[in-house]
Amino acid sequence: MHICCGPCTIYPLKELRISGHEVTGVFYNPNIHPYQEYLRRRQTLQEYAQKAFLNVIWPATYPLEEFLREVSGRDKERCNYCLSDRLKHTAQMAKNQNYDGFTSTLLYSRYQKHDLIKEIGENLSREYGIFFYYHDFRVGWSEGVKISKELGMYRQPYCGCIYSEKERFYK
């Protein structure tokens, strides 16, 4: 399961486990910046993963420069690239390590482009020959938010990219 952050992991992880799935997390998010924000989200997930007994695969690198090269000057395509890059990384990893399928916590957020995530996941499923587990986890939004607040988790105020940060705070 691709994981964008700790709070968004809570509900999808619960639902997947209830459905009988064994879950391994993948934290691959070169879209998150500045770097201190990336580290804060990573640390929050590390703490939650330990409590939830969730194995997470952590990236060896932080390919921010590649992400910025791909989205710079392409404002309208940036979300498509960002979602595709993260899901592709997860699908490739799942395929290479013989997992049965892949999914993402991005399907939990009310703020993400849900239909686009689903379309990208299904396309990658066909391309790599690995099952994309689609589930609309947004139904558990309130539950996940409540639990994350009870646990005192860091809850970020934007998706992660510098463009999103500007849209959120620049007036």
Structure write-up:
The longest helix is centred in the middle third of the chain and has 19 residues, at 78-96. The chain has helices at residues 10-18, 35-52, 64-71, 78-96, 114-128, 141-150, 162-169, and strands at 24-26, 55-57, 101-102, 131-132. It has a two-stranded parallel sheet with strand order 1-2. A two-stranded parallel sheet has the order 3-4. It has 171 residues and is mainly α. The model has no long low-confidence stretch (mean pLDDT 94). Helix 5 (114-128) links the parallel strand 3 (101-102) and strand 4. Helices cover 51% and strands 6% of the residues. The protein starts with 9 loop residues before the first helix and ends with a helix. The protein has 7 helices and 4 strands, in the order H-E-H-E-H-H-E-H-E-H-H. The protein has a single domain, classed as 3-Layer(aba) Sandwich (Rossmann fold).
In short:
With 171 residues, this protein is mostly helical. The chain has seven helices and four strands; from the N terminus they run αβαβααβαβαα.
Number of helices: 7
Query: Which whole number gives the mean pLDDT?
Result: 94
Portion of residues within helices = 40-55%
- CATH topology name, in short, is Rossmann fold
Order of strands, widest sheet? 1-2
Structural class of the helices, strands and pairings? Answer: mainly alpha
Unreliable residue stretches: none
Label the overall shape. Answer: globular
- The tally of beta strands, per DSSP, is 4
Report the sheet-strand fraction.
5-15%
Largest sheet entry: 2 strands, parallel
